[in-house]
Amino acid sequence: MLFLDTDILLTRDFSAAFDGSFDVGLTYRNGPSLSAMPVNEGVIVGAQGNAPALKTFFDDVLDIYEWLAAAPSPSARYGFDIRNWRGGQLSLAGLIDWAVPPQASAKVVINKVRYKFLPCFDFNYTVTPSDPPQFLATRWAIHFKGAKAKGLMAPYVAFTRKNELTQ
Questions:
Q1: What is the pTM of this model?
Q2: Deepest of 49, 139, 160, 161, by most Cβ within 10 A of its Cβ?
Q3: Which of residues 34 and 76 earns the better pLDDT score?
């Protein structure tokens, strides 16, 4: 099961990512500016046939979300109610204690749910205007964040359809 933002396009069949070693796959990004939100909620991979683990995952994230939304520090930090924006990614970060590879293991168990961290570069790539379509086709999922990137979505779809017809 895949949980995707509406501005995501899949470029590969995700069934190959389901190797049986995890219940939930989370896409991560590294870098000092991303330390508060190292997990991107645009792509969440739920292993097939494990509805109890997915329920536990979403229950745990919702509990953290409610706790963060009620706490004064997130609103003070961002200047707005995180229920309007950022709350989901902050909740995912809280779930994994703000640690992703290489700081955390590539796989971790939390509340009996097996997690695997998948790099955003491959599984939730943020599209930039300079990315050639041939490169984007090598990622598993591409994320058209922001108005400029969303404008690139239709030309990319046209490119892929044209190439499908010629293959």
A1: 0.86
A2: 139
A3: 76
Tens digit of pLDDT for each residue in 24-41?
Answer: 999 998 776 677 788 999
pLDDT in tens, 81-114: 888 888 888 999 999 988 877 777 778 899 999 9
For residue 42, the tally of other CB atoms under 10 A from its CB is 24
For Cα atoms 32, 33, 37, give the angle at the middle one, nearest 5 degrees.
100
* 139, 82 contact by CB (below 8 A): no
Give 26-29's long-range contacts (Cβ < 8 A, gap of 24+).
26/92, 26/96, 26/115, 26/116, 26/117, 26/118, 27/117, 27/118, 27/119, 27/120, 27/123, 27/124, 28/100, 28/101, 28/117, 28/118, 28/119, 28/120, 29/100, 29/119, 29/120, 29/121
